[in-house]
Amino acid sequence: MTLDASRLIDLERYPIHCNGTERDALLAQVRADLARDGCAVIKGFLTTGGVAALVDEANSVADQGHWSKSRTNAYFTKDDPSLPEDHPRRQFYDRSNAFVPADNFSPDGPLRTVYDAPGFDEFIRDCLQEENFYRYADPLADVIVNVAEEGNGFPWHFDTNNFTVTLDIQNAETGGAFEYAAGIREGDENFDEVARVLNGTSDRVTVLELEPGDLQLFRGRYSLHRVAPLKGNRPRYVAIFSYVQEPGMVGAPERTKQLYGRTLPIHHERAGQRGDAYID
Prior knowledge:
Elements: H1 21-37, E1 39-42, H2 48-61, E2 66-72, E3 93-100, H3 110-115, H4 120-128, E4 134-135, E5 143-148, E6 154-157, E7 163-170, E8 174-175, E9 178-181, H5 191-198, E10 205-208, E11 215-218, E12 224-227, E13 230-231, E14 236-244, H6 253-260, H7 265-269
Antiparallel strand pairs: 1-11, 2-3, 3-5, 4-14, 5-14, 6-12, 7-11, 7-14, 8-13, 9-10, 9-12
């Protein structure tokens, strides 16, 4: 049975598919939030039934997630002994969580029904006000679910994708706050301020508590961010929809292997094709 996006998304409250004053007002608010610090949250974007449907789907595929435990720096690069010991590139942290790759989600399932909903891409593009706007072409990563359990978090890092759109599906019992330092490397790497975030002395960190059904737009390519450790028996599920500035972009082979446990031929064929020169 084909799902109806209107049963998953609260289109009465957020008519993203219809031009008009309500959509315009929503756009204005999201744009203002993005301009302020690169982060905007649309509270209760999903209906109660939509949240339940996505929780059921996430439960059904959670065992397909690639679980990994590793020590990573904010750039997902290897240690560089030529740098000082206190350099941000030499600060490594434990990481333990899972990503359920995109090819585990049915084209007519609830997650992709939200992603393919009429007006969804256009709304996201209008929010970001980007002329160059494309779905991430990575067949393992265009729309995924992150799974984390007690003790797990995602340490400080920058995103590979220029724009990240996330949908909170299920929270852990406690913990799991989203923390970010907005625009910390807008224009350059800004290692000094990155170091202050990592050692806990920066005054640029915002702590954000998201709830199931909240839609978040985030410019994570330029903002250092993390998910705080979790507590309790209930796993945390967050869907990630990815958009980029260049057509045909996919993840680098090394990072794809880290996150999803495998690569596809396309990752090797398009290795090195990026629209910026940041070290990750």
